[in-house]
Write a structure and sequence with these properties.
The chain has 392 residues and is of the alpha/beta class. Helices cover 42% and strands 15% of the residues. It has a six-stranded mixed beta sheet. It has a four-stranded parallel beta sheet with strand order 4-3-2-5, with helices on both faces.
Length: 392
């Protein structure tokens, strides 16, 4: 599988370990926050929340300790970009965490690493030791008096729900991974009750480049509402699957052309929790204002059975629901039951319409992103491929 490819304008461009840290500690913390705000950088984990806002709130919080957490629990089906960053660009991830620590006044960072990625842990630990030997971690980093910051790696247990930041924090504290009620938010009451920022691997990897080149430079890429580039994990029916770096605003058609996909029937944007796009919508743009995504692009050609695709997704969500809230716990099972009735040709359209309404209710009332997004595939596939599915 091809890994590092695309235009290489930001993340896959050259970078020297420690260079951005050196520049960051020469700046005031407010200057860094200003550059983040200028850049309009949004979190690359799917929610798209403003990084500047999150860091500003944590920076302003008054506490005796604060934390920076790297969410490396890459559990979305069809997503594997963070694995490439961790394996081949750890200097970007860790330098981004150090800069985050300096900016908000934290002294400790934690990488919450997906259980299946344990094989990269040794290499990551080795890189952390190298950073310590080069005074990029530890006390008085690069001679900056009073700036102390360290990073530790903690293993997750491969639970999809722990991709949600408060469930991740619960897991780190030794409890079952379940989403917390909000407010309070992690920027005020996070890990161990202290102000905490949680950013995913890709978001933190952007920070060193942004610090070196500035917010205005970053905004030259992408669209007005979706600045910068994005990493895409492309898989499925194409000749060139892999991890690509492209600007926000690229169309689905252009993606298919670049990865040499043929006879494409559908594209799932955003992994299992995303939306399934038919041919008639391949001219849409992948951006927060049109088709947002954490990075997964799954391609299906004309030979694929879309009902089987949908059933696979819904079985996954039934398995991964933590069961804490009723809409998600019961709703996903009901959606799966509906798919099984279609397979048996034992359904009414009235019942399926009720299930679609149930899905919309789940999107509003579920406690976390799992239940809020799990109906996306159900609703979009039944709507966009009904002629195929109802002739089953």
């Amino acid at each position: 599988m091809k890994k590092r490819t695309g235009e290489g304008k930001i993340l896959f461009s050259a970078y020297e370990s420690g260079k951005a840290i050196k520049k960051a500690i020469s700046l005031n913390r407010d200057d860094i926050l200003f550059e983040l705000k200028e850049s309009n950088l949004r979190g690359r984990g799917g929610a798209g929340f403003s990084v500047a806002t999150k860091w500003m709130l944590a920076s302003a919080a008054v506490a005796d300790s604060k934390y920076v957490i790297c969410n490396a629990d890459e559990g979305e089906p069809g997503t594997f970009k963070d694995r490439v960053l961790l394996s081949e660009y750890p200097e970007l991830v860790f330098d981004g965490m150090v800069i985050a620590g300096y900016t908000i006044g934290a002294k400790e960072g934690i990488v919450y690493l997906r259980g299946e990625y344990e094989y990269v842990r040794k290499a990551l630990e080795n890189h952390l030791e190298l950073m310590r030997s080069n005074n990029l971690l530890g006390n008085n980093i690069l001679g900056k008096e009073g700036f102390d910051f360290n990073i530790q790696i903690r293993m997750g247990s491969s639970a999809y729900v722990c991709g949600e930041e408060t469930a991740l924090i619960e897991s780190l504290e030794g409890r079952r991974g379940e989403a917390r009620n909000r407010p309070p938010y992690p920027v005020n009451t996070g890990y161990l009750g202290k102000p905490t920022i949680v950013n995913n691997v890709e978001t933190l990897s952007i920070i060193p480049h942004l610090i070196l080149k500035g917010g205005k430079w970053f905004k030259k890429f992408g669209t007005e509402k979706s600045s910068g580039t994005k990493l895409f994990s492309v898989s499925g029916d194409c000749e060139k699957p892999g991890v690509y770096e492209w600007e926000w605003g690229i169309t689905v058609n252009e993606v298919l052309k670049r990865v040499e996909a043929k006879n494409t029937k559908a594209v799932q944007i955003g992994g299992a929790s995303g939306k399934c796009i038919p041919k008639s919508e391949f001219n849409r743009k992948i951006a927060y204002e049109d088709l947002p995504t954490a990075g997964s692009v799954i391609i299906f050609n004309e030979n694929r059975d879309m009902l089987k695709v949908l059933k696979n997704f819904m079985e996954f969500f039934v398995e991964e629901s933590c069961g804490q809230c009723t809409p998600c716990r019961i709703g996903n099972k009901k959606l799966l039951e509906g798919i099984e009735l279609i397979e048996k040709n034992d359904f009414t359209f009235s019942y399926l319409n009720k299930l679609k309404e149930l899905g919309k209710t789940m999107q509003i009332t579920s406690k976390c992103g799992l239940g809020q997004s799990s109906p996306n595939a159900f609703i979009s596939i039944l709507e966009n491929f009904k002629e195929e599915i109802f002739s089953y």
